[in-house]
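Q: Could you write out the predicted structure for this multi-component system? I'm mainly interested in how the pieces pack against one another.
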Amino acid sequence: MTSQVNSPAVQADGAGVDEALDAPVTVPVKAPEKEVRRLDRVIIRFAGDSGDGMQLTGDRFTSETASFGNDLSTLPNFPAEIRAPAGTLPGVSSFQLHFADHDILTPGDAPNVLVAMNPAALKANLADVPRGAEIIINTDEFTKRPMAKVGYETSPLEDGSLDGYSVHPVPLTTLTVEALKDFGLSRKDAGRSKNMFALGLLSWMYHRPTEGTEAFLRRKFAKKPDIAEANVAAFRAGWNFGETTEDFAVSYEVAPATAAFPPGTYRNISGNLALSYGLIAAGQQADLPLYLGSYPITPASDILHELSRHKNFGVRTFQAEDEIAAIGAALGAAFGGQLAVTTTSGPGVALKSETIGLAVSLELPLLIVAIQRGGPSTGLPTKTEQADLLQAMYGRNGEAPVPVVAPRTPADCFDAALEAARIALTYRTPVFLLSDGYLANGSEPWRIPGLDELPDLRVQFAKGPNHELADGTEVFWPYKRDPETLARPWALPGTPGLEHRIGGIEKQDGTGNISYDPANHDFMVRTRQAKVDGITVPDLAVDDPDAARTLVLGWGSTYGPITAAVRRLRGEGVAIAQAHLRHLNPFPGNLEEVLKRYDKVVVPEMNLGQLATLIRAKYLVDARSYNQVNGMPFKAEQLATALKEAIDD
Amino acid sequence: MTETVTSSEPKHSLLSLVPRAEGKQSMKDFKSDQEVRWCPGCGDYAVLAAVQGFMPELGLAKENIVFVSGIGCSSRFPYYMNTYGMHSIHGRAPAIATGLASSRRDLSVWVVTGDGDALSIGGNHLIHALRRNVNLKILLFNNRIYGLTKGQYSPTSEVGKITKSTPMGSLDAPFNPVSLAIGAEASFVARTVDSDRKHLTEVLRQAADHPGTALVEIYQNCNIFNDGAFEALKDKEQAQEAVIRLEHGQQIRFGADGAKGVVRDAVTGDLKVVAVTEKNQSQILVHDAHQASPTTAFALSRLADPDTLHHTPIGVFRSVERPVYDTLMADQLDTAIERDGKGDLGALLAGKDTWTVVG
């Protein structure tokens, strides 16, 4: 499905629009039958039981919104349990979507619309919903038992606790069952399509295109055409309900965000999908077969799933017996000349540490993709966090430097994967690609790059001797380095005359033979460090239009909330500079100079100050931490307040 | 009741995927320039010599041979082979070799490991390599002791072993590596002894030719920390009673003039050793390494007394053909290309749902 977004009749200028404002700007436009109002942005949250299909509903609304041409940002939020007991607070799953006619950066702080499929969903989410917002409630679930299960003694629909909200009580289940009565389904089975009814209703409310969802449902249930048609019917019934019922007197338009998007072809993409595509693209651009060794772990498994579907790109995926074998197999494949990758999350990184150290010692290219989640230990598997930065930096025995690259948005995971591959291949080193759960599952529009825009990652394998002994004999030395990059040659098994042995024991410089010589070890430790320190990374860009005295420095997925907060402050006339690190090791060459230009440096992180610790240690800068470790991304408003306090302090 | 050999179809060797050496090779070609640094008298020397001596017979391009090892005395092995090699980390060699073998079918990949490396810290990787049937040849040097860390008991040490870490005797029951491998669905399992070069070479020959994972347990003497551990199998007089040489298609007999044999107990179905008589001669078990069921091979692996080593079978216990992981993996790639066409990056990135913004 392709929709064309031409030059807009009404151009929405997104520049400087503050998405953290409490209420959307509403412009009445003429209504044919029902009133249609134009909004510049909307935040919707679908919430229900884990089994209610809220993630699917959110995904579909997102796809409709993306194809319509809005800018958008999403925040799926679900429990670690696959099916927590039905109707309970721990079982609530939600999907928040922020879409706008202008450029936006976050999934939004507070929903304008909450869809609550049951009492648990209402109870778990109501605190986030500001008064005045719309709440669509599935009244069928507001019976005595489900309400009692979450501690509602009286019905919130009747006891006044929803005063001040614009409540739409809708018997979603009943209406769905009624709409599907000709399908011969049981009440229970028919009721399952209530999420599609809700999607249809919301699609009507926000004038979303529907053909994509109908095509999707027919694709998804291709083997069960009855179920496909039942879902399509529920979806249409939801739409028609909105159009006909008096309760929904107003619908809304959010114009395409034309000005926010440079010309190009776009799609919506999640971080893990973008990262998977980045890995495939890296293999193609390097002209190397991609080899993934992985062990299932939340929130990284999607990458294993995705890559395993693309074997026609020559991609080999190996689901190993454990995290250690996963990286071991990847390292073995790297020795054999593959673009080798392992994907994991924090606990898996801990298990892989020894092999990462071996990769440092072997100096072979290897990508370690770590999708951070709440820790320590099992922690919060489905929630986001940035607390594995120091593990990536230092979590190995000995001096074992590893470059670290961090994407900043879901779509940026594509470019970050290519960049991590560039470093690994050029410098023959393991590289950390440090994403997180928020980026992994969140999504946003992505301008699909042309293949000619992708970097050339081709490598030169060693083909012959690279050293002449005193007696004139030509030999191959596996640790004779490129003088520029300090990378060692990559000589693949199968290359005649270059037979050599490598290992985790300290090696003699040049020959690679086992060496316990103290001076050689000192030299090798320093050389491995120098190789990583010498990696060419772009200078840090600073956004500082107002010659501010305070710099906010971030890394990774905090880019969206920090940028939104900065816009908000600037909108209020507050000067603040912003910079965001993609390269955490080595840091950009100008970082020290940038830091020292400002009176104050504030570092917001979803940890207890790990980047701040690195900055303070390396540059003796009195960086201030602003931390949140609650499993959720920062909210723009909260961050703006904190930054303002730091500026005024 | 006589066992009949029914399943002796020739196996489909995967060696044809590995380039052949151009000229004639000699043992010297496989010796690296590194000084061998095992303790004088170590059994590893004999194994190294046997492997270096056998390689020319294999006739593969030596640049297409890779030795991957873990940690321990035996794991220094790759440094002494003039092939490609990796001395990796403790226990992980089968995992690393799996990545290499499954992505490079033109290589002959060998794993060198020890009883601690393969059965303690690396036990998980070993059993999973075996069950997957990756095309690896695993040489498990079993000296029943930790040598490199100077003499602690190992997972194959006999119960009650007095070592530095077990002054009152070790408590844990040992693994029998052959039993373990058979239990882990291994398609090829053999046992041999460091000092018997001829037998060792014959086992290597069969292992090299086997499509899939071949596990070769090599009883290896550590003359420093566990000297004489296999003396019962080496001392000529004792060996007659202790060693049972398995030969496919032959009756399982041993002792002076084959006076003893292995029969199946009619009541329990288990195997037992009997004195061969006129009457029971026809009931002596005929060894069938190719039998699909692992039951008899497992029973054979249980004949040995773990303390005295009496009735220790050596030779190939089991050698059956089943799908090889690397082959299956490569086939899936071919199938995907046949089905979907060669990957088109532009089409992949674009996906199905796009929209266009014009300037």
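A: Regarding packing and overall arrangement: DSSP finds eleven helices and twelve strands in chain B.
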